[in-house]
Known about the structure:
Elements: H1 2-26, H2 30-40, E1 44-48, H3 49-55, H4 57-92, H5 100-154, E2 158-162, H6 179-193
Parallel strand pairs: 1-2
Helix pairs in contact: 3-6, 4-5, 5-6
Amino acid sequence: MNQKLINIILGAGIAILLILQLKNVxxxxxxxxxxxxxxxxxxxxxxxxxxIQEKYVFYKEKMQEFEKKKESxxxxxxxxxxxIEAEKNAFAQRGNAITQAEYENFQxxxxxxxxxxxxxxxxxxxxxAAEGAKTMEDLKKRINDFLVEYNKKQAYSYIFSYSAALNxxxxxxxxxxxxxxxxxxxNAAYNKSGDKK
Length: 197
């Protein structure tokens, strides 16, 4: 019963809207002119995120920092692994001189060191991933903050983002590409901010 009532109300609402729309079709008054002018005044633009990653100094510096930290962590982990393996090889060279008790003690110590190394690796990976996510959030905030100020003069209705990796725009008119202006503005703001290295 409730579903029938809802359907009747919705049907009546649609009918009323249709009647009102048909009444307005015949009129060429100022109200319909203003409405079509508003629709025509809709301004759209897009920013190519791949170009921002390529040209925005803040992003490039952060990615270089990120890569250095990752390389340093990889090098430290590799050195620790090689040290443990060298200890294992040195122990194995003793050959038949190793007693059962020494072998068992070494195995426990070796497994413990490898587990610690795995935990250390996991912690470093988590730390690097968290730092990467924080950098992306910071990048997004900087772009959003810049676009709010930028758009006060430009008055775009919508500014979309585009990336080759995540392409949700079927068509993009190069005339609506504001990427170069945005990159120049972001770089100027970054250089002025004192965050630059």
